[in-house]
């Protein structure tokens, strides 16, 4: 056993110390995900992060690799079949995004209900104007696809605005903060009730293109759609058609099927759309939270041979 940990993301000296204190006898070396040192990775037992072009090195037959801790919540870009075949333990960064992404979700909702997006445009044109159709979140219904850490935090904050909360999950099991939880198969029935439909889903075979023309047609006239999950869970052409027809009143979008969103894409010119560049989860506390997850998992890994937190289920792809 090499007892080598390689992190492909920058860490402060304090964060490095936390890891080394939790892993006596291990070495910790910092690499670069954009320019990975394959020789360094070839001897790693544990890798934090991922990068292009490292799969063959890490997954060769005689590799000492046993565990990968991703720097992201999503794992769709990793070679999941090969990792599973090799029996590699895989944990993700689920949970680190809940607070900042929830803030972005409510930023979108407040922009739309209070017309703040149009106010910013009016300010740029020195125009004193209001359509007079401002609303509020109180009494509105949020349909939240995904009842994990992000969805649950969103539901919790929604209650402070006295909103009704409906969740969507694979199981449909009750979750704290949600007035009701539907299964994914019941998504068409759930979205009928939403003033806001919020997509926090990971990208899997089951969720690819899930939000399409059929789902948008089931939404109430004037519903707002928010996507901070993965771009490919939404059929973009169908979304634009629903926005143009008025079926959807607006959309707050942080993720897209193609990223970066091309400069000539029609979404840029739609005034009822607010776009952020896949930064909803960005926060100056990100690395601290990943290190917290990793050091917690180190304890169970060293004691029981496997991390216990955020373990990826290969059959579900998250």
Automatic annotation (TrEMBL):
Domain D-isomer specific 2-hydroxyacid dehydrogenase catalytic: 9-311
Upper taxonomic lineage: Bacteria, Bacillati, Bacillota, Bacilli, Bacillales
Keywords: NAD, Oxidoreductase
Presence of keyword NAD: yes
All residue ranges annotated as the D-isomer specific 2-hydroxyacid dehydrogenase NAD-binding domain in the record: 107-280
Family, as annotated: Belongs to the D-isomer specific 2-hydroxyacid dehydrogenase family.
InterPro entries membership: D-isomer_2_OHA_DH_cat_dom, D-isomer_DH_NAD-bd, NAD(P)-bd_dom_sf
Keyword NAD: yes
Coiled coil: none
PANTHER family xrefs: 2-HACID_DH_C DOMAIN-CONTAINING PROTEIN, D-ISOMER SPECIFIC 2-HYDROXYACID DEHYDROGENASE NAD-BINDING DOMAIN-CONTAINING PROTEIN
Name listed for the protein in its UniProt record: Hydroxyacid dehydrogenase
């Amino acid at each position: 056993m090499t007892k080598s940990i390689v992190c492909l993301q920058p860490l402060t000296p304090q964060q490095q110390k936390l890891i080394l204190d939790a892993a006596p006898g291990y070495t910790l070396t910092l690499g670069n995900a954009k320019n990975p040192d394959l020789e360094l990775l070839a001897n790693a037992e544990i890798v934090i992060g991922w990068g292009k072009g490292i799969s063959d090195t890490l997954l060769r037959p005689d590799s000492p690799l046993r565990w990968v801790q991703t720097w992201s919540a999503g794992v769709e870009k990793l070679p999941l079949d090969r990792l599973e075949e090799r029996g590699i333990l895989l944990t993700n960064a689920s949970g680190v995004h809940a607070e900042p992404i929830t803030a972005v979700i409510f930023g979108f909702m407040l922009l739309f209900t209070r017309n703040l997006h149009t106010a910013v445009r009016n300010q740029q044109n020195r125009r004193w104007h209001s359509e007079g159709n401002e609303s509020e979140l109180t009494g509105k219904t949020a349909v939240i696809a995904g009842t994990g850490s992000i969805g649950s935090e969103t539901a919790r904050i929604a209650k402070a605005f006295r909103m009704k909360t409906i969740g969507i999950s694979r199981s449909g099991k009750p979750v704290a903060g949600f007035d009701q939880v539907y299964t994914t198969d019941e998504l068409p029935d759930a979205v009928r009730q939403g003033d806001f439909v919020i997509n926090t889903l990971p990208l899997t075979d089951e969720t690819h293109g899930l939000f399409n023309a059929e789902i948008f047609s089931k939404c109430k006239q004037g519903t707002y759609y928010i996507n901070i999950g993965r771009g490919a869970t939404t059929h973009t052409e169908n979304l634009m058609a629903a926005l143009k027809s008025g079926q959807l009143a607006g959309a707050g979008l942080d993720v897209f099927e193609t990223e970066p969103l091309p400069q000539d894409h029609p979404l840029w010119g739609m005034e009822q759309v607010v776009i952020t560049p896949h930064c909803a989860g960005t926060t100056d506390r990100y690395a601290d939270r990943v290190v917290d997850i990793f050091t917690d998992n180190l304890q169970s890994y060293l004691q029981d041979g496997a991390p216990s937190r955020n373990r990826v289920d290969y059959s579900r792809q998250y």
